[in-house]
């Protein structure tokens, strides 16, 4: 699997409007762990999301990256209110929706849509494309001029499918086409915010770029804000104006695209960038960092800095104090990092090859694509 993901040269991401569409503060989600045979008692909790602060402007795309298990999907499900937050605050267009009831959410339900990772599981196999794509219109009582069927046919065209596919069933389509159906479904109610949770990870590499290109087009031409979740920095790079890097329930670094890719300060961001297949082949003065082991359990996360068990820069302080997410000297406005011993704002600073895990190194040496698939799986 050596195929490169090639993305269209599309215009720069549409600048955010500066008007905050989504505001998230101190957001937490703890899943209870219960034990006992007769009486279920709470014996602990999975701290899946543990105090997030971020915002998304109207029309802006925020990319969210991190390895599997870092709490990205939970964040997406909290934002769309598929999950009830444990603590913190969520505001949409200035309205507090943290604990809004179904009824209270009804007027904005259609404005926030989700695209799921698995285009096989997310489409009902017994429904036709027409009824799948028109379902959100039906649920939200939306009757477009000319009728729902006409609108569905238009949407199929927008997402690159044949409008004649209206009466077909999901099994007649490939993964990429199914994801296009998912995009059409999300667009059917003219959303203002789309949460796309790893929308291309389940697809063939050659198809991934096509679907990312479609989403980019949608974002830029229709001015829809996105929370684009991925485990691969190469995928969100072209898509997002700002990127948030998550590790074990926390944002460890956030900033505009240039800051994150060109002047990352957090060791974890360096490691993720190092693992990402190089999107820009001329630019590789970068050292290779292979992350050892797995993300620790969110049931009992490491004290202080959660990344310390895998960080090559960790010192005693890192176990004692949690580093705050702040703007460091040398970082640009809005570029925040949570690290006691951050990297200098230059990726070329260290030249040595940091090998944290010989097993991963061996895989990597057998081919770049194999390694990136392995490390980001
Ligand atoms: N419903 C749930 N009950 C218990 N634990 C959960 C639940 N959903 C997710 N988790 C746990 O929360 C952590 C974060 O999961 P998730 O948000 O899916 O991460 P990501 O999308 O970054 O891979 C994981 O350890 C996962 O096992
Ligand atoms: S705070 Fe310490 S352990 Fe955490 S990322 Fe920074 S140097 Fe590494
Ligand atoms: Mg996930």
Task: Give your account of this protein's structure.
- Belongs to the ABC transporter superfamily.
- InterPro entries: AAA+_ATPase, ABC_transp_ATP-bind, ABC_transporter-like_ATP-bd, ABC_transporter-like_CS, Oligopep_ABC_C, P-loop_NTPase.
- The protein has helices at 72-79, 102-109, 129-139, 148-158, 175-187, 205-222, 233-237, 257-262, 267-275, 316-320, 358-365, 368-376, and strands at residues 20-35, 41-57, 61-65, 87-92, 95-96, 112-115, 193-197, 225-230, 242-247, 250-256, 289-290, 326-327, 336-337, 354-355.
- It has 12 helices and 14 strands.
- The longest helix is centred in the middle third of the chain and has 18 residues, at 205-222.
- It has a domain at 265-376.
- The protein has 377 residues and is an alpha/beta fold.
- The strands form 3 sheets. The protein has an 8-stranded mixed beta sheet, with helices on both faces. The protein has a 4-stranded antiparallel beta sheet with strand order 2-1-4-5.
- The protein is 29% helix and 22% strand.
- It is globular, with a radius of gyration of 21 Å.
- The chain starts with 19 loop residues before the first strand and ends with a helix.
- Bound molecules: adenosine-5'-diphosphate (ADP), iron/sulfur cluster (SF4) and magnesium ion.
- Adenosine-5'-diphosphate is lined by residues 31, 46, 48, 66, 68-74, 298.
